[in-house]
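[User] I have long wanted to understand how a fold can be written as tokens. Those tokens are not coordinates but codes from a learned vocabulary of shapes. Could you go through the record with me and say what the backbone is doing? Thank you; the sequence and its tokens follow:
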Amino acid sequence: MATVAISRREATVTASVTTDRHLLRSFLERDRLYAAYAICDLDDREFSRTRWGAAWSGGSIVSIVLEYAGGSPQPLFAMGRDDGIDAILRDVLRPRLAYIAALPSVLPTIEARYRLDGGPQMVRMWVDRGRFRPADDPGVERLGPSDAPELNRLYQLGFGAWLPPQAVSEGVYFGLRVGGRLAAAAGTHVVSNAARLGVVGNVLTHSDFRGRGYATAVTGAVTAELLRSCDHVVLNVRADNPPAISAYRHLGYAEHVRFEERLAHRIGSPWSDLVSSIRRRLSPMKEPPSE
């Protein structure tokens, strides 16, 4: 177990790896809407793919950083005091290339360890049963594993992600067809029955069918299904995408917080720039267009 101590704010901060899910859940619940992805990752199905760093000061936990396993760049989520985040990133979690989510206030701390690419702010939006306003139903339908090939054909137009049938089976996906053709779809990134939280994602309308309210309809259908078992449903949207924000507000979603999602290159790691360049050429990521 790696441990590092730094002196800041007249207190000693120590950081180490932890697998204590009760401890992590208690800290993350301080802001469950911002930490929704991380809370869902505490479930058995996701936890084995994660690595957690925690920082302590005066006997209390002050910061958490989550690293999700997978291909580079690894997703990182940071929450808590900046000195604690610095301690974790200094000696506990040190990916060469990461895609980090953090509040704007801690970016200067992260930039001591990583060079951050530019990008627009993200908006975390949320809804519960009391706020939710169902959309008009122009014929949406629940999608299943057999629809995965058609979903992938739709999604490749926007961001080239390959979605396995198992992900459709385990998640909640709704689509809308026009003339037998899948014109719009929405689904989930992650759902936690234990935490009663759901995260909507993969919302996309084919360019031939935008401006007809289809994205709102499929997002509303996914949200309605999640709210049958979830207390809160959240989603992310780029701050520079007013049409999408407006569509989500129409469903009752409200803004909770604005945060940063940045590609981060470890300072002193020359390989990160090379890896980033190769990944961009081989699998370019694009923002899914709104309606």
